[in-house]
Structures are given as C-alpha cells and as structure tokens.
C-alpha cells in the first residue's frame, strides 16, 4: 500500500481500522499553506501520520501491547514490511531494508522502508 491507498481507504468510508482505532484527516499549518496528513488515532491519541512521502509514528506516551499493535498496523497500511518489537522493555523497529533502530516518538519512515530520522543501531542479545 501507499499514502494513496490509505487515502482511498478513508474516502471509501473505512474510517475504523481496528478496535478504538480510526483514520481521519488533520490540518497542519505551515506558514502560508496547509497540508492534510491522514492520522491514525487510538483512543483519541494520534499514533501515526501518513504523509505523501513518509509515515510518522508516535506512542502517545503509551508503550503498551495495543499501541505497538496499532503502530504495526500503520506500517502494514503504509506497505512497509517491518515491525516494532520489544526487547528488555525497549521498543525497536525493523524495516524491510533490515535497519533495526530504537523506536522514538516522531520517527519518520519512507514508504520504501528507509528510516529518515534515526541512524541504524546494533541490538545486542
């Protein structure tokens, strides 16, 4: 999938994507222009923003199994073959480009799976 696929899903009345999880538009003001990312909300908290060239992920301060599940759903909706997992109480994201990085709120990932906001780190086992 891509931004357009997520947009089409929203336009065809598929706002609810999971329990207590919905898609909607948001207005972002940038000086003289406005952009309209698609947001994914879990219990009213924004956990993902879909932009035309990337996705932005947020835990909204809730590092729970449900939040992680919705972030993984956002990755799938975006067509990114990757997942967020937990190791020793820390979240990590592994994308289809085999980058493993520590999850940070607000991190940005391109639709090809490239992590735009964090360099790769090694996970010791």
From TrEMBL:
What is the protein name stated in its UniProt record?
Uncharacterized protein
Q: From which organism does this entry originate?
A: marine sediment metagenome
């Amino acid at each position: 999938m891509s931004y357009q696929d997520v947009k089409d899903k929203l336009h065809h009345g598929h706002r609810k994507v999971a329990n207590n999880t919905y898609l909607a538009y948001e207005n972002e003001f940038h000086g003289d222009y406005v952009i309209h990312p698609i947001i994914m909300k879990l219990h009213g908290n924004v956990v993902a923003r879909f932009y035309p060239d990337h996705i932005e992920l947020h835990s909204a301060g809730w590092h729970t199994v449900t939040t992680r599940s919705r972030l993984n759903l956002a990755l799938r909706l975006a067509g990114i073959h990757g997942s967020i997992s937990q190791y020793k109480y820390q979240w990590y994201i592994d994308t289809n480009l085999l980058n493993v990085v520590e999850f940070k709120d607000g991190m940005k990932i391109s639709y090809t799976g490239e992590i735009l906001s964090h360099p790769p780190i090694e996970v010791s086992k």
